[in-house]
Amino acid sequence: MEEYFRKIIEAVGEDINREGLVDTPARAAKAFKFLNRGYELKLEDVLNDAIFEADTEDMVIVKDIELYSLCEHHLLPFVGKCHIGYIPQGKVLGLSKLARIVDMYGRRLQIQEKLTKQIADTVESAIGAKGVAVVIEAKHLCMMMRGVEKQNSVMTTSVMTGIFRKEISTRSEFLNLINRQ
Fold first, then answer.
1. pLDDT in tens, 33-82
2. Please, where in the chain does CATH 3.30.1130.10 lie?
3. Of 155, 69, 150, 163, the residue nearest 109 (C-alpha)
4. Which CATH number applies to 44-178?
5. Which of 74, 89, 137, 173 is catalytic?
6. Is 82 a catalytic residue?
7. Which position among 14, 40, 57, 72 bears the catalytic label?
8. 112 belongs to the catalytic site
């Protein structure tokens, strides 16, 4: 990977032997691996048996989970926040596991639409929830730094499964709770 970064730097017209760039291919390779570390993770390891029996059927929400990913079309970052809600059906997830699921899929080359669905499907299948709601709000550097160069645009995606899709009142409660300050 270092050699590819070296070639990219030279291809844009830079002198790879310039003092500030001598170690850049190695640093860039290390950073790119870090930014895409989600490929090295397995769901079983991320969940780490943190699925617990619970007799509650009330909504569980974790909001404002920081999200960092790379757009698979331009390899530029998109950053934002993810909100997850679910209605348990006998089982709940350890609190940090929701954030770890976001990181596992976010730290891969992605599109936001697919990422939103991956998170919802994973939570639903992990605990057999009655329904899952996921909303992601993110700014995409591929839209801010190039192309149309719109600095204040935010993309919002949502996936609703089960009771969140069927019951407007459940969906409305979730959306109202994530929008409270």
1. 999 999 999 999 999 999 999 999 999 999 999 999 999 999 999 999 99
2. 44-178
3. 69
4. 3.30.1130.10
5. 74
6. no
7. 72
8. yes
